[in-house]
Amino acid sequence: MTELPEQGAGAAFRPDWVSPPGDTILDLLEERDWTQQQLADRLGYSLKHVNQLIKAKVPLTEDAAIRLQNVLGASVGFWLTREAQYRERIAVLDAAERQVPMVPWLERFPIKAMMNAGVLTKRRIDAKSKPEIVGELLSFFGVAAPDQWEHQYGSMELAFRRSREDQADVAAISAWLRMGERSAEKLDGPAYDETRFRTALKEVRELSRLSPQEFQPQMQRLLHESGVAFVLVPALPRTHVSGVARWLNTRRPLIQLSLYGKQNDRFWFSFFHEAAHILLHSQQKKSVFLDDPSKAGSSSVEEQQANAWARDFLISPEHSRSLVDIPKTKAAVIGFAESIGIHPGIVVGRMQHDELLDVRWLNDLKVSFEFISKS
Fold first, then answer.
1. Within this chain, do residues 314 and 228 fall inside the same structural domain, yes or no?
2. In what side-by-side order are the strands of the sheet with 243-249?
3. Same domain, 194 and 306
4. How far apart are CA 361 and CA 342, in angstroms?
5. pTM of this prediction?
6. Which domain holds residue 144?
7. N or C: lower Cβ tally within 10 Å for the chain?
8. In CATH, what number is assigned to the domain containing residue 66?
9. Which candidate, 227, 219, 218, places its Cα nearest to that of 196?
C-alpha cells in the first residue's frame, strides 16, 4: 500500500528519482480501483491531460498539486517536491549524456590526484563514472563546458611567467591554481595595502623560528590584515610548481604554496620569493608567476629579482658577508641565526647554496614541515 504523509507533515518523501510523480498517481488509482477517467472527472481535467500528467509529458504544476492534494491526499509540497526531484534527476541524466563526448577532456587532468586532494569525489574511474566526473570537474572550475574552460583557464598560459621549462602542463597547473582560487574565495578581507604588507613581512620573518603550529595562524592573520590572500595547497603531479604569486583582481594578491613537506629553509625562501613578486612586480597584475625557487638557472629577470630580494630579506648583505667566517659547527650557526632573528635551518640552507657548507652537513638543523591544508 502506498503511504502518504498527512497534509502539513514534515516527513520527507524519498522516491526513486527516475520515477515520475505519475507512478505514485497510478499506485493510488490502483488502491482505489479508479480509472484514469474517474480521476480526471474528480480533478476537473480532461482524460488526455491526466494521461500526459501520469506519463510526465506535461509538468505537475502548482494547480495540479492543489487538485491532487484535494483528491488523492498528501500535501501540495509533497507533489511539488516529487515533481522537482524527478525533473532534477532527468536534468542530471541528460547532462551526463551530453557529457559523454566530453570524456576525453578528462585525460588532460591528474584526476586521481585531485580525488586524493579532496577536490573531486573518490570513485572508480571507468566508462560509467567518467561522464559524472566530467560534470564534477566542470563544477570545480566553475564553467559550463570544456570550451569555457579553454577560454577561462586554457588561455591562462599566456599569462604564465615560468621559472622552469617543464612547467608546460596547462591543465594540471590550472587545476592547482583553481584549488588556490577556491581557498582564497573563503578569505574575504581588506584591499591590499603595500605598507601594511611590508610591515607584516618583517613580523613573518621573525616567526621563522617557531613551529608551523605556532607560526601558521599568526602568519595567516598578518597577511590577511594587509590584504594578501595566503593559501597552502597540496601539490599535484605534472605541475612542477612549488609556489605562485598572482593577482586575483586589482585589489587582491594571492600567494599560494604547495605542500611538499618542505624543509623550513626552502619553505621560507619560497614564501619570500612569492612576496617579492607582489612587491616588485605589482604592475604586472595579469601575470601568473609559476615558481620553483629551489631550481636554479632561470633566465627570467623577474625571477632573478625575486630570488635576490628573498635572499637579502632573509639574510641581509651586511650579515651575509659574515657567513664566510662562521665556524662550521651547530653552535656557531645557531648563535649566528639567533643574532639576526631567524631559524638556523635557513642559515644552513643559505650556506649550502653559496657553497660555504657541504650539502651533507648540519642538515639536522633544518626542520621538515607538514601543514594542514584548508582547501
1. yes
2. 160-162, 288-291, 243-249, 252-258, 229-233
3. yes
4. 19
5. 0.76
6. 109-152
7. N
8. 1.10.260.40
9. 227
Q: Helix H segments across 142-211? A: 146-152, 170-185, 194-207
Q: Is the pLDDT of residue 235 over 90?
A: no
Summarised one tens digit per residue, pLDDT across range 274-289 is 999 999 998 888 888 8
- Asked if residue 3 is part of any domain, the answer here is no
Residues in Cβ contact with 219 at an 8 Å cutoff, skipping those fewer than 6 apart? 204, 207, 230
Cell of 353: 647554496
313 and 208 together in one domain: yes
**Which pLDDT belongs to residue 300?**
78
Q: Which three cell numbers mark 53?
A: 500528467
- Confidence check: pLDDT of 178 > 70: yes
Per cent of the chain over pLDDT 70 is 87
CB neighbourhood size of 359 (10 A): 12
The alpha carbon torsion through 254, 290, 268, 340 (nearest 10 deg) reads -100
155, 89 in Cβ contact below 8 A? no
- Written as one letter, the residue type at 195 is T
| Cell numbers at 260, concatenated | 611538499
Total residues found in the chain within this entry: 375
Select from 232, 284, 221 the least CA-distant residue to 253. Answer: 284
Three cell numbers, residue 268: 621560507
Q: Is 375 within the bounds of a domain?
A: no
107-127 confidence digits (pLDDT tens) = 999 999 999 989 999 999 999
Residue 200 C-alpha cell reads as: 607584516
* Number of domains making up the chain: 3
